[in-house]
Specification:
There is one protein chain. This protein has 151 residues and is mainly alpha-helical. Helix content is 54%, strand content 3%. The chain folds into 2 domains: 61 residues, no CATH class; 45 residues, no CATH class. The protein contains 6 helices and 2 strands; from the N terminus they run E-H-H-H-H-E-H-H. Helix 1 packs across helix 3, helix 3 packs across helix 4 and helix 5 runs antiparallel to helix 6. The chain is elongated and about 60 Å long. The relative contact order is 0.10.
């Protein structure tokens, strides 16, 4: 039997919600072995919030969950991350359109950008880099100085 390189595929790495991934990573810091993750329902006697998140995902997506524990996983982007990426793409496309003199496209992208900011403002949602400035750390806040270090 001839086996080609194309016939051998690495195991699938599913994409799981960020909340589930964070719960898994938290429990891994508590030295949970993979076998315990595959039987997570047995360990939720007290309704631990992290275990509850994992258990709910395991019950609704058992195959993806098992593959994530065994093969590793990627994390889904949050809604804010998806909006920020689309917004940045539209900003870049608008700039390119300005540069090439495609004013119909400039108007389209400008309307899109204005609409996104307006909807987020109406909903009271703040996304840095979209409808509020990117978070910047003031220089004096970068390091804390103890009273003993001030001489």
């Amino acid at each position: 039997m001839n086996v080609t390189k194309d016939a051998i595929k690495p195991p699938a790495r599913p994409t799981i919600p960020r909340e589930v991934a964070e719960a898994i990573e938290y429990l891994r810091t508590k030295q949970w072995p993979d076998a315990d993750f595959l039987n997570v329902g047995r360990y939720n006697h007290y309704g631990h919030p992290k275990i509850t998140v994992i258990e709910a995902y395991q019950q609704t997506n058992p195959v993806e969950y098992a593959a994530a524990i065994v093969n590793g996983y990627g994390t889904e982007q949050t809604a804010e991350e998806r909006i920020r990426l689309r917004y940045k793409d539209a900003e870049i496309s608008r700039r390119i359109s300005v540069r090439f003199g495609d004013f119909a496209a400039v108007d389209k992208y400008s309307a899109y950008l204005t609409g996104v900011r307006g909807v987020l403002d109406d909903l009271g949602v703040k996304i840095p880099g979209v409808n509020v400035p990117e978070a910047s750390v003031p220089p004096e806040a970068e390091t804390e100085v103890d009273a003993d270090d001030r001489r």
